[in-house]
Amino acid sequence: MADLASFTVRRVTEPEPELLDSLHALIAQLVEEGAALGWLEPPSRSDVGDLLGDLVHESDLDDACLAIAEASDGSVVGFAYWSRRIGETEQPHADIGRVAVSSAARGGGLGQRLVNELVDYARKAGIEVLTLDVRGNNHAAMALYERLGFKEYGRIPDFVAIGDQRWDNVYFWLDLRPDEHDLTLHGDTPTGPGASEVR
Questions:
Q1: How far apart are CA 54 and CA 32, in angstroms?
Q2: Domain range enclosing 36
Q3: Model-level pTM?
């Protein structure tokens, strides 16, 4: 089990060129180990640089949040991020894209610290609902999200494809709206723009 106190979790808000090599090395290692991150082969350094640049740029507008976990030597041992949805009717919401921790740093609550950093900043940025999806065989991640208050809202059976193998894609959401708000919540009531009568 990793010593949680030996790691620092922080939000990345400025371009940090020295961060790229360490983040790329971590992602490459995790993908080689088979981590459920959406890559079958390790992404290039350039691809990771584009992701890093986009997240830092969007964070200036409160449209993204990148959190990293660093060891005492400055190496990145974990990362997580969310991005605001771009559809005009979905802009109060954001999707958590990836949460990952080095196999050597697991077991001490570092994933929870990273997700908490994302949730805390999402509240500050006015995000109302955070969503994410998880490969159906990643039970540790699902247990983590449930402990943090996320609720499963659906799954597509045998959707995630790796070669000729298939796993469920499981969807979670976390409501960040305060108990006291001035929103009018209609749910599925047939009222407002685009409404149609119940048949």
A1: 24
A2: 4-126
A3: 0.92
